[in-house]
Amino acid sequence: MKTFFITGGAGFIGGNFILNLMKSDQVKVINYDKLTYAGNLDTLSSL
Fold first, then answer.
1. Taking CA 35 as the corner, what is the angle to CA 31 and CA 36, rounded to the nearest 5 degrees?
2. Alpha helix locations (H) across the chain?
3. What pLDDT, on the 0 to 100 scale, is given for residue 47?
4. What pLDDT shows up at residue 18?
5. 47: closest CA among 11, 13, 21, 26?
6. What is the full per-residue pLDDT of the chain (47 aa) written as tens digits?
7. pLDDT at 30
8. pLDDT at position 43, please?
9. How far apart are CA 33 and CA 41, in angstroms?
10. CB atoms inside a 10 Å sphere around CB 45
11. Three-state SS at 9
12. In what helix (H) or strand (E) does residue 4 lie, and over which residues does it extend?
């Protein structure tokens, strides 16, 4: 199993990147986001 550390994962690009990574059962994702104007946790609500 691979682990990915994603910065900015609550933004548009980072969120979609995480959603695509999570389609695989072989990955673990750690998301770190400052949640400024561009960060939105609703992007990852489907997880």
1. 145
2. 12-21
3. 83
4. 96
5. 21
6. 999 999 999 999 999 999 999 999 999 999 999 998 888 889 888 88
7. 96
8. 86
9. 9
10. 8
11. coil
12. strand 2-7
Amino acid at 35: L
* pLDDT of res. 3: 97
| Structural contact between residues 17 and 8, judged by C-beta atoms closer than 8 angstroms | no
3 and 36 Cβ atoms separated by less than 8 Å: no
pTM for the predicted model, two decimal places: 0.84
DSSP 44: G
Could you tell me if 3 and 30 are in contact, meaning their C-beta atoms sit under 8 angstroms apart?
Answer: yes
SS3 3: strand
Name the residue type at position 46: S
- Domain map of the chain by residue range? 2-36
With vertex at residue 23, the alpha carbon angle to CA 30 and CA 36, rounded to the nearest 5 degrees, is 40
Q: What are phi and psi for residue 2, nearest 5 degrees? A: -95, 145
